[in-house]
Specification:
Number of strands: 14
Strand order of the largest sheet: 3-4-2-1-5-6-7-8
Distance between the termini: 43 Å
Strand content: 15-25%
Structural class: alpha/beta
Largest sheet: 8 strands, mixed
Shape: globular
Helix content: 40-55%
């Protein structure tokens, strides 16, 4: 073959490869989250990990941030384009108003996929479909079970779950429990994609621990928002009856000032052994996970608890309520206590504080996180669902989902 012919072949192959890249490059518009980066919440953590990976895989990502949570001047982060859209700082209206405006904005920018997170924002799936958008919904759990909602709000959230399940092009769920709900209530098959966790490894630093007055291996840890469904009142009450030298660290805060969070902080202040440092992120969060004696999650409601997965990624001994979402993680039986039973929680905390976690169990938890809750795998699975929603052929389907 002549030199000219070889050059023509090379140019043609390069052109075809470039064309294939641009043909498969998607514009993804994300709404339903409060926003990124570093905004507390399970959905927010999910989005913060997932979408930078999709950008690195060659796709354009636009995230609609709620105006009450983000800086005005932040327009880009980790390759993601950020748009600041109005949201009233009113619990009952925040998600609804913001998502409505975000759907209208999405129509203006014409994405390939509109990805809505959570059942409340899913109220606007029919509107998005009427506007000609391809919609993927992630159902992060039955939010109407949260104790903060009144009767009317619960009905609206259930309606959102139904409309999202019925009318989205594709539905993603983060647990088998939620898959069953979508199947039963919406008569629709969903795509199971678990939450993910980054396995960071233990920190050897203790500076943050010293700053909040705790010592390594001498504290019980809870990481949660200060809302009723997290069961933190039960934890504080059980801890108050516990005879131990270990302190209790509750890392987290409330999204909005509330009577519940204020009362919880007052109760903690009355017991000088309880430490509440507020929201903790980054290296400081790494420290408090690395050096805890026991991790406790006393929730009444979860989708798939990221805080529990994080604790498992450190090989921590864990103790969690026996709600379906926690049971689905598949811990050993003695890692569960009866939900809402303060005495049972106290007894099991005392028992686990006396016995170190077995090395085999520690290794299995870390391996489970790496196998099942890997963000890169989750990114590939999400792209496959987008391809289904767009009715595009997707090569390597079995490799992605296996």
């Amino acid at each position: 073959m002549s030199l000219i012919a070889c050059l023509l072949v090379a140019i043609t192959e390069s052109y075809n490869a470039a064309q294939a890249y641009w043909d498969n490059r998607m514009k993804i518009y994300v709404a339903g989250t409060r926003g990124v980066p570093d905004i507390p919440g399970g959905v927010e953590s999910h989005c913060q990990k997932l979408y930078p990976l999709l950008f690195k895989m060659g796709h354009e990502v636009i995230v609609a941030n709620r105006s009450s949570y983000v800086r005005k001047d932040l327009r880009e982060w980790s390759g993601i384009r950020l748009v600041r859209i109005y949201a009233p700082r009113i619990k009952a209206l925040e998600a609804i108003v913001h998502t409505f405006l975000a759907v209208l904005h999405a129509r203006l920018v014409s994405p390939d996929i509109l990805h809505l997170h959570a059942v409340g924002p899913s109220l606007f799936v029919p509107l998005a479909r009427l506007l000609g958008l391809k919609v993927v919904v992630t159902n992060h759990g039955p939010d109407y079970d949260r104790q903060k909602w009144g009767a009317l709000a619960r009905k609206i959230l259930k309606l959102g779950e139904y409309l999202g399940g019925r009318f989205a092009n594709e539905v993603i769920v983060i647990s088998r429990v939620i898959a069953g709900i979508v199947s039963d209530r919406c008569n629709k098959e969903s795509n199971l994609i678990w939450n993910g966790v980054e396995v960071r490894g233990k920190s050897h630093d203790t500076g943050f621990l010293k700053s909040i007055g705790v010592e390594p291996e001498r504290y019980i840890l809870a990481v949660a928002r200060l809302v009723p469904e997290k069961g933190l009142t039960d934890l504080v009450e059980a801890y108050g009856k516990l005879d131990t030298v270990c302190r209790l660290v509750i890392a987290g805060d409330a999204d909005h000032g509330s009577d519940y969070s204020a009362a919880l902080k007052r109760r903690a202040a009355e017991d000088g052994r309880i430490v509440m440092p507020g929201y903790v992120t980054g290296d400081d969060l790494n420290q408090i996970f690395s050096h805890a004696r026991l991790f406790v999650l006393p929730s009444y409601h979860e989708g798939l608890p990221i805080a529990l997965l994080e604790a498992m990624s450190y090989g921590l001994p864990v103790l969690v309520s026996d709600i379906p979402a926690n049971i689905e993680v598949g811990l050993e039986q003695d890692r569960y206590f009866r939900t809402g039973d303060v005495d049972n929680l106290r007894e099991m905390m005392a028992a686990h504080l006396e016995v170190a976690v077995r090395e085999s169990e520690r290794a299995e938890m870390i391996d489970q996180v790496r196998r099942c809750y890997n963000w890169r795998r989750i990114a590939h699975q999400t792209l496959y669902v987008y391809e289904k929603a767009l009715s595009r052929p997707c090569l390597g389907e079995q490799a992605v989902l296996s």
